[in-house]
Amino acid sequence: MSKEILWDQWKCRCSSISKIMSNAQGCAPITEIQLKRLKELDEKPNRTEKQSIELTELVQKRENSSKIVLGDTAIGYLMEVYAWETVKKCSVSKELTVDFIQKGKMGEKEGLELLSYCENWLYEKNTERIDNDFLSGEPDTFKGKSVREADVIPDVKIIWDYPGFLKKINKPADPDYRMQLAGYADISGAKEAFVANCLIDTPEPIRNDYRRKLFYKGEYTSEESPQFLANWRPIERSMIFSDIPVLQRFNKVPVPLFTEVERQAIYDRVKFCRQWLADFDTMFKKLNT
């Protein structure tokens, strides 16, 4: 007999917070800015016709926000959760390795070293999963007494190429990363979180693989032929960054932590998803019986 799953104790991974917060089209929740605007309009002694219409729309949006309608992204994630929790099967396609993911995994140690040098603090790889009543996660690293009592939570991102690195300067953190890091901070109690964009040399195995691919795509006599080398050298040069000063290969992007409104909305969504999973489990078990 399979072990009973306690769906009312399920916790969302921080990396998937943005997924469960996705709503069905047309059901986006009211934002804090919109709530402030609603309060401002509501307190006006005299409103123009346009402001009255805006107030009505915002009131309706606030009322609709209390109705949770999961979007396709959220439901897709919960199906992955159900598959893993019930029979320990994952999405195979998501496990396939692509080059930039492989570089991230292979370059993690060097990324931590670059982060440590630039921040003047020895950041070490964290392997402990932490949680609270609603969320769970495994931060890359931390600064503080322990990962459960952290002061700072960085997230190391290994950037694929130099143009990609430059594009991230003065650009806010991706919303999904922001939710993930804010989730780590929520669990650990950290008062600061940031994305650490690190530009490190592409690992030699990946460079060699690209060299082989380039050779087999062309009609070269050998890998030492002038034509092949003329085509390969610009690519190889674009995969090595040790010629760039260390401090110019690191970019720190601060991440805003959860507001009280955001935190409560996420916790409420986890509770909703728990019930959704329990209801789906009951329905699924009745199929073909």
Keywords:
single chain; 289 residues; alpha/beta; 2 domains; 4-stranded mixed beta sheet; 49% helix; globular
What does the largest sheet look like?
Answer: 4 strands, mixed
Give me the number of helical elements: 11
The CATH topology of the largest domain, please?
Lambda Exonuclease, Chain A
Q: What structural class should be given to the helix and strand makeup?
A: alpha/beta
- Proportion of β residues? 5-15%
Which strand order spans the largest sheet, edge to edge or round the barrel? 4-5-6-7
* Estimated radius of gyration: 24 Å
The helix content, as a percent range, equals 40-55%
Low-confidence stretches: none
Number of strands: 7
- Shape type: globular
The overall number of domains is 2
CATH architecture of the largest domain: Alpha-Beta Complex
How far is the first residue's CA from the last residue's CA?
Answer: 17 Å
Secondary structure topology:
Elements: E1 12-13, H1 17-20, H2 32-42, H3 49-65, H4 72-87, H5 99-106, H6 108-119, E2 130-131, E3 135-137, E4 143-146, E5 149-158, H7 162-167, H8 175-188, E6 192-198, H9 204-217, H10 226-237, E7 250-254, H11 260-286
Parallel strand pairs: 1-3, 5-6
Antiparallel strand pairs: 2-3, 4-5, 6-7
Task: Write structural notes for this entry.
Helices cover 49% and strands 11% of the residues. The protein has 289 residues and is of the alpha/beta class. The chain has two domains: 7-93 and 261-286, no CATH class; 97-201 and 241-258, Lambda Exonuclease, Chain A. The chain has a four-stranded mixed β-sheet with strand order 4-5-6-7. Helix 9 (204-217) runs antiparallel to helix 10. The chain starts with 11 loop residues before the first strand and ends with a helix.
